[in-house]
Amino acid sequence: MKKFFALAAVLAFVPCAAMAQDGDATLVGVRAEARIGYETPTVSDSGSIYKIGSAVSYGGELGFDFKLGKTVQAGPYAVYEFSSVSLCNGGACVKEQGNLGAGLRVGVAVSPKVVIYAKGGYARISFKATSGTFSATDSKGGVQGALGVDVNLSKHVYLMAELNYGDYGNYGGVNLARRHVAGGVGFRF
């Protein structure tokens, strides 16, 4: 979490010189977005997939988009989303605490107000298990990818929608993954 806030501080002080480049300056620069989504973490083995649960997630993303050409942009991002996914059986429960992601986002402006993008990078998912008075937490790192769209409402405000998939690899003999859809509102500075 400290790394997320450190990245946020760095991005807040990055000069916005990219905003002065040719073309539509509203699609580049520092951005921050509030996100809400629906997710399904799963485990699988031998071709069978089991849902840990499905529930709402919420969080935020920070990023900086640079213009690479007339219609192409790219830049780093960091996202953290809290989760309400839980699975209980009797007195024992497993709850997802959240998902941290960071990587590179590449977008193509298909109009002066719309960007279609792809993201790829590192993800880390955290769980907490409880049973009676016993409690333990664990996390697992992996890779994530996403496809999404930003639609500018004004010079500084945009709406976003995104499909995301995280693969955390082998976890206790099963493959751990996360499927996620999110929407939200973003601000460019």
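Next protein, fold it too.
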Amino acid sequence: MKIPVTGRNDPCPCGSGKKFKGCCLGKDGLGTSGRGGTGASAELRQALEGRQFTSLSEVQEFIEHHTQQRNQTPVDEFHGLSPEQMHRMLHFPFASPEVIRFPAILDTNPKAPILTLFSLLTETIGEQGLKPTAKGNLPQKFCREAALAYWGETAYRENTRLGGINREYDFPDLHITRLVAELAGLIRKHKGRFILGRDCRALLAGEGPAAIYPRLFRAYVEQFNWAYRDRRVELRFIQATFLFTLYLLTLYGENWLPHEFYEDSFLRAFPVLLDEVPPDSVFTPEEEVRTCYTRRTLGYFAGFFGLATVDPVSEKHLHYRYRVKSLPLLREAVQFHVSG
């Protein structure tokens, strides 16, 4: 009789953090450094070798204990996290207080690019609201004024030298801020105008940015599609691993590190993602994953939310290299409770 080692909805024994049915079930040895299905079977066979059992239930109990122990063992590729912890971080990030906590109100007023733009947006909406364009976007005049305030005169001239800001989409950071604020229920359209939501008014009158930031953060990681901004391959799994990168930044971010360190760590932890990249005549699957990961997770997320500084240090043939360092807001907004 064939005895299942891992349930379909259990964390995959390869250590990917995915459910078994969505990872190595039916595959041969896909995983990290020998921790795939083949590796798990080999370990189990070794553990069973020489043991005597009096019943099938005793065998099943041993297998379940072995699998549980394996899923709770730290994995080198996860930098000290176990498959079970990774599973919780990937699938239940806001419902796993034993692993991670997100304060609803921060201890201090946070500073982040998205908050700067959100403040400009809410101040302009004010009590009277803001009339959108015929297509439902932010008016051109406001977009230009917001860009000047956000960038400063020198950067504004540089950023618009090849084309001005004629619509909301020409200022992507503001466009994304508006979309995320709507997803978070902080602003909405009512009777043909952008207005502040009831919760937004209460939060601004009370705790302010310390309570606004967690709302924007959660809407960005749970509801906003990260692939929307760069329009490259979807790869939603990159978005699902946001906590793994923040965990790495918590461990190593006090020192400047090249962005390749985080790319390499991501690919070592989740090599099966390369199989999800469709064929392309220009980029290899690895190049595509690296580009999407660095843009979406480091630049458009960690940098935009003030969790890390992502500085360009060189550019060659439109390929940028960055150095990355965590910011104090990271440990305040995202509190890990794991040993690494």
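About the second fold: The chain has 15 helices and seven strands.
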